[in-house]
Amino acid sequence: MKRILHIAGREFASTVLTKGFLIGAVVVPAILAVAIPVIIFIISQQKAPPIVGTVAIIDPTGEVAPRLVEYLRPEAIAERRGELAQEIGQVVPSVPGGGSGAIEQAVDQAMGELPDLTVDVLPPDADFDTAKERILQAVKNDPDSTIAVALVDTDAVLKDDDAERFGAFNLTVLPRLDERTIGEIRSGLNRSVLDARYAANGYETELIEALTRVGAPATSEITEEGERTSTSALSFILPVVMMMLVLGAVFTGGQYLLTTTIEEKSNRVVEVLLSAVSPTQLMAGKILGQMVVGLSMLAIYSGVGISALIAFSLADLINPMDIVWMFLFFLTGYGMIASLMASAGAAVNDLREAQTFMTPIMMFMMIPYLMMLVIPRAPNSTLAVVLSFIPPINPFIMMLRIASNDPPPFWQILLALLVSIGGAVVAIWLAGKIFRVGMLMFGKPPDFKTLIRWVRMA
Amino acid sequence: MEHAVVIENLRKTFGDKVAVEGLDLRVQSGSLTGLIGPNGAGKSTTIRMLMSILFPDSGTLSVLGKRSALESKDRIGYLPEERGVYRKMKVTHFLKYMGKLKGLRDPELGQRVAHWLDRVQLSDAAGKRCEELSKGMQQKVQFIAAVLHEPELLILDEPFSGLDPVNLRLLQQLMVEQHEQGRTVILCTHVMFQAEQMCESIVMINNGQKVLDATIEEIRANHEPSVVLFDPIDGEDPQSARGIDGITGVEQTREGWAAHIDLHAIAAPDAVREIAQAIRVRSVAAKRVTLEDVFVEQVAGGSADREAEVRDSLRASVDESESMEGATA
Question: Taking the model in full, what pTM does it have?
Fold first, then answer.
């Protein structure tokens, strides 16, 4: 056992002291921890560029143009934004990092400063084509330049009795005009046409608006700690994040195991080692050492993640038991994948040859990635339950289900864990045989038949 | 314990190829035994089975009184033929790691590592990474790894390959020293004169089978020289030695003129005397039998054609491994 620990110790030290690992496990999380607040701060200081220019309108109905003038007044725009922020505040619960003020700020950020748009009402009989030519002379960010010309149809407000539909308007704009500017002008025109129609038909705009709006508050969840607003978006992300953590940690350890095994084989140090330890001890030590590497990765990244959740007071999203399951499923998942990697590493002479073996392993491991989008939506579907019992992917599938908002029954978690433990035991047993024979075989890499012969041989 | 290693009826196959067949072997405790044979004879396979790195198809073996080397790895030092070091590891760290795997502990381990690095003149390299060392230096480091834990049995597989003459002599000296301290040493090599220089007893293997197992003295006693080397003075006709009864042929070799004798017709000392009487010579002496001669004789079984064939393949085996070393160095 002492020898296994010595081997594990060397394996761990030689891996974590490499630049690659230090960058992946320490520098990246550190950069993330520093960079994210900085980026958020920078973004909060940045606002979209203001919208400036003149909108020319030819309005034969005489009803739309004055309404557009009113709609595009800066004060009116400011008022509408305030209402929008209030609405969002009702639908979206607590946005991480702030109260309703934060929403207003976010709305401002998204929409930029208040637009400075002047409406130039042209005579009702003005020529649309001539008016459009004014756009060609436009200069960006000049309030007097015409950036858009609108022509309202004559039947936009009052339709002919035999016509099926109302008329609308034509809008021509400067090329490459900001999407938000066009949106602002279009919605101004839409709104003005609608208002004009309501008035022409004797309705009050406020009444129509009140009739067509349902102002339900945000959905809330009831938990043992009390009631809270629903966080369905985050609870959809959580299973994916937890699965990715386990998958990432398993493959970090597994990948290092593959590389160090190939290295020991190709630089011929293996037989020197085998003079001191048995192949089984060597493999056990290596698997153990890289397991600690994977565990460190998992601990570091999940630690950063949990601290972030605590910082945003969302820690109650995670059940502490989920973390326990996460580590248990890491161990069994790692046991299976590491055995495959150790076998692949022992069977080949260099990393290039290893690709042949890695491809089928990777293809199989794509399944959890694909399921990442499916299972959190239906964590207890037949597909999810079946995949939960198929090694070596079941630890990852199980993570998706456990962290979802409808976790599987306890017996399923336990059974999946037992199945994956069984899978790991079988995988380690097989790998031990392939490792024993493969480590001393140089030359042509084996095919599948040869591998089976090795298993029988050892 | 009379025998450090006992092998009985050992057999190992790789697919269709029989690597070792019906091998019996006993290595006396405290002896320096040479396991020799051309490349591919089955030496390394035998050693690997001895070390429990490979397992035999049939037959039994015992190492230091145990059924498997796994139970006595701490008492065995092994320098494999396929050997390497962790390239990025520092020399001291590598040796300490190997020492720990063999059950040694600090501070004794550190002292031994320093002592041995000094012995092989590598003290300066202690802090270097293994990849910075030359191949010969790496080989000395690997030798240290094999002897660091003071094993009772030392198995060295082709320990001299790729060494320059100075380091070759150093390693030979260290090996003999290990033997003199009472350890059993098994030297495995395809370069037969190296074994001849050092070993007390010899086991020859060819095609996975033992062809000879005897002490050097026994071999010399049983294999009378069949060649007399002589150096005629100018004007003498060396071919006139053909007239002597029992001399079957005379030819010029790299070592001088050689007269081949039929040992059934004449004894070597008599042939020497007869040649000295028949021709005026500067020197004349029976040529000492080499292990290579004995090997060729054993394998060829008296057929002259077969003898030439075996000698050629033996030379090719040595040349081939030397050129391979040249290519990898």
Answer: 0.72
